[in-house]
Design goal:
1 helix, alpha+beta, 53 residues, three-stranded antiparallel β-sheet
């Protein structure tokens, strides 16, 4: 079961099965393909940053 643990301007954070899941919001003012690439890139970059520490 997902439980919302935080919500900000860009994403919601969920706790599910002892894992944190981040769902970034779509930006309707961006071209769809660009928005998908940016959100994916930023999420992966953030995950790598946390794994290194």
């Amino acid at each position: 079961m997902k439980k919302i643990i935080a919500q900000g301007a860009e994403a919601k954070l969920f706790l599910e099965d002892n894992k944190i899941i981040k769902n970034r919001f779509l930006k309707s003012y961006r071209i769809k393909e660009i928005d998908e690439r940016l959100r994916g890139f930023r999420t992966r970059r953030e995950a790598r940053r946390y794994c290194k520490n």
